[in-house]
């Protein structure tokens, strides 16, 4: 049995009875539901580690970390949480950027780390059933071993978990061709906030039997229940991927190049980054300079070229763009190794700028609005904070942009975040003006919660609350995320 004498003392504002109730719940899990001592952690180091995600805005303060090994064990915990009125925070790989997995108010964190098995493979269906704790890269490697492909990919693939990807409807670098996580989820097993186990869609392509409840749990950030298993669709692997990195001096030319290539070639990626990002990358010495002379903007595009006519077409488009004055310089991979090196220019940006404690905004609009949208945002930030350095990058081929404001050395983190937050309303008013999203792929969590009304009407938010009441009537699932009850 676990010794609960080490349960933490919560800060003022937490009811003292919460710890006593948590201790009772943890004891019942061990005595009646098969939990062993390795499945429960209450030490300070563990609470700190599993109680947070990649955000730095909220201090973690959970009361315990629980590691179920089965859907039944998840169900037992959820039912006890309802009985004892204890809030649960589901936890995956904790790579989120909106504080959706942060437990800051004495919650019990439910980590899916021990539910990490590939359950079953259906070759004829190109379908694999996995537990929610399977790492994204693990699924990608399994697919590769079957000569198949799981295309949802991003920088955190080595640590993010499928359950977390589903909870945030993760996107990444291949969305322009393959779509978001939602497009690859064919079935779910979930434990609702009431403690019911639902088997949703069961992997079928065609199923016209009423509401598709599976879609409610995708992107719900664990506020309706806990995903414990998923049936994920796989695809044929891409063939002979070729990468181009192109430089240009006007942002309008970025969009003209995108249109030119998309008109004739099915792109698998079209990524954008600016000169500030390249400056920071080059300072690390980990990436080679793409061209002899810098340009203001860069794009990385990728496409399949298994046949020579496709490569001929790509070169013809490139030459037309050069003739039109849209492209200043460009480089194209001649091997898979060169393609991987060129991808480093885009994939290393987040890690490189992390030392500057960036204030991140993950926003999206229709591709048609992107040029005017970026102009309006830059006008606001430059006017209010002329001394702040702005780094733009993102999946511009699907309208998703990451605005990163870099912290000056002379400001503390709290001062810097405070100043950035004062300009948020202005930025999100521009998002609203263009009918965009305040969170394209990182979720809402707690960091974006105050701004949800810029992307969702009050009527929509009321419907979201009513849906939550049905599936989680006592509000025990990830309370305080997306919206307040």
From TrEMBL:
<dbReference type="Pfam" id="PF01565">
    <property type="entry name" value="FAD_binding_4"/>
</dbReference>
<dbReference type="InterPro" id="IPR016167">
    <property type="entry name" value="FAD-bd_PCMH_sub1"/>
</dbReference>
<dbReference type="GO" id="GO:0022904">
    <property type="term" value="P:respiratory electron transport chain"/>
</dbReference>
<dbReference type="InterPro" id="IPR006094">
    <property type="entry name" value="Oxid_FAD_bind_N"/>
</dbReference>
<feature type="domain" description="FAD-binding PCMH-type">
    <location>
        <begin position="58"/>
        <end position="237"/>
    </location>
</feature>
<dbReference type="InterPro" id="IPR016164">
    <property type="entry name" value="FAD-linked_Oxase-like_C"/>
</dbReference>
<comment type="similarity">
    <text>Belongs to the FAD-binding oxidoreductase/transferase type 4 family.</text>
</comment>
<keyword id="KW-0862">Zinc</keyword>
<dbReference type="InterPro" id="IPR016169">
    <property type="entry name" value="FAD-bd_PCMH_sub2"/>
</dbReference>
<comment type="subunit">
    <text>Homodimer.</text>
</comment>
<keyword id="KW-0274">FAD</keyword>
<dbReference type="GO" id="GO:0051990">
    <property type="term" value="F:(R)-2-hydroxyglutarate dehydrogenase activity"/>
</dbReference>
<dbReference type="InterPro" id="IPR051264">
    <property type="entry name" value="FAD-oxidored/transferase_4"/>
</dbReference>
<dbReference type="GO" id="GO:0071949">
    <property type="term" value="F:FAD binding"/>
</dbReference>
<dbReference type="Pfam" id="PF02913">
    <property type="entry name" value="FAD-oxidase_C"/>
</dbReference>
<keyword id="KW-0479">Metal-binding</keyword>
<keyword id="KW-0285">Flavoprotein</keyword>
<protein>
    <recommendedName>
        <fullName>D-2-hydroxyglutarate dehydrogenase</fullName>
        <ecNumber>1.1.99.39</ecNumber>
    </recommendedName>
</protein>
<dbReference type="InterPro" id="IPR004113">
    <property type="entry name" value="FAD-bd_oxidored_4_C"/>
</dbReference>
<dbReference type="InterPro" id="IPR016171">
    <property type="entry name" value="Vanillyl_alc_oxidase_C-sub2"/>
</dbReference>
<dbReference type="InterPro" id="IPR036318">
    <property type="entry name" value="FAD-bd_PCMH-like_sf"/>
</dbReference>
<dbReference type="InterPro" id="IPR016166">
    <property type="entry name" value="FAD-bd_PCMH"/>
</dbReference>
<keyword id="KW-0560">Oxidoreductase</keyword>
<dbReference type="GO" id="GO:0046872">
    <property type="term" value="F:metal ion binding"/>
</dbReference>
């Amino acid at each position: 049995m676990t010794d609960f004498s080490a349960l933490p003392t919560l800060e003022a504002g937490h009811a003292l009875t919460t710890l006593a109730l948590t201790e009772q719940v943890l004891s019942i899990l061990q005595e009646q539901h098969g939990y062993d001592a390795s499945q429960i952690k209450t030490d300070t180091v563990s609470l700190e580690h599993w109680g947070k995600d990649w955000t730095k805005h909220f201090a973690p303060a959970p009361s315990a970390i629980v590691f179920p090994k089965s859907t039944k064990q998840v169900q037992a915990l959820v039912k006890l949480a309802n009985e004892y009125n204890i809030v649960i925070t589901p936890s995956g790989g904790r790579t989120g950027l909106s504080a959706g997995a942060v437990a800051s108010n004495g919650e019990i964190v439910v980590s899916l780390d021990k539910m990490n098995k590939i359950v079953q493979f259906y070759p004829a269906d190109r379908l694999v059933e996995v537990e929610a704790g399977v790492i994204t890269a693990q699924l990608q490697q399994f697919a590769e071993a079957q000569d198949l492909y799981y295309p949802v990919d991003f920088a955190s693939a080595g640590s993010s978990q499928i359950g977390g990807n589903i909870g945030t409807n993760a996107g990444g670098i291949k969305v322009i061709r393959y779509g978001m996580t939602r497009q690859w989820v064919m079935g779910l097993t979930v434990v609702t906030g009431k403690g019911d186990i639902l088997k949703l869609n069961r992997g079928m392509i065609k199923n016209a039997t009423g509401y598709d409840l599976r879609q409610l749990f995708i992107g719900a950030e664990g506020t309706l229940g806990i995903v414990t298993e998923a049936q994920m669709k796989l695809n044929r692997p891409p063939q002979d991927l070729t990468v181009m990195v192109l430089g240009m001096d006007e942002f309008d030319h970025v969009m003209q190049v995108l249109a030119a290539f998309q008109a004739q070639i099915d792109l698998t990626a079209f990524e954008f980054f600016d000169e500030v990002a390249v400056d920071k990358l080059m300072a690390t010495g980990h990436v080679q300079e793409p061209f002899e002379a810098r340009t203001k903007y860069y794009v990385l595009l990728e496409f399949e070229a298994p046949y020579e006519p496709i490569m001929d077409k790509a070169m013809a488009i490139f030459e037309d763009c050069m003739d039109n004055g849209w492209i200043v310089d460009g480089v194209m991979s001649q091997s898979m190794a060169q393609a991987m090196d060129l991808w480093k220019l885009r994939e290393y940006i987040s890690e490189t700028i992390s030392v500057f404690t960036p204030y991140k905004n993950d926003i999206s609009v229709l591709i048609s609005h992107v040029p005017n949208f970026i102009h309006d945002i830059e006008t606001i930030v430059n006017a209010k904070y002329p001394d702040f350095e702005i780094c733009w990058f993102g999946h511009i081929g699907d309208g998703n942009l990451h605005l990163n404001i870099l912290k000056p050395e002379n400001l503390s983190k709290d001062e810097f975040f405070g100043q950035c937050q004062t300009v948020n309303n202005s930025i999100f008013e521009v998002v609203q003006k263009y009918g965009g999203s305040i969170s394209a792929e990182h979720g809402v969590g707690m960091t974006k919660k105050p701004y949800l009304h810029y992307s969702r009407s009050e009527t929509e938010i009321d419907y979201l609350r009513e849906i939550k009441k049905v599936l989680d009537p006592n509000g025990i699932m990830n309370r305080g995320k997306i919206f307040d009850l």
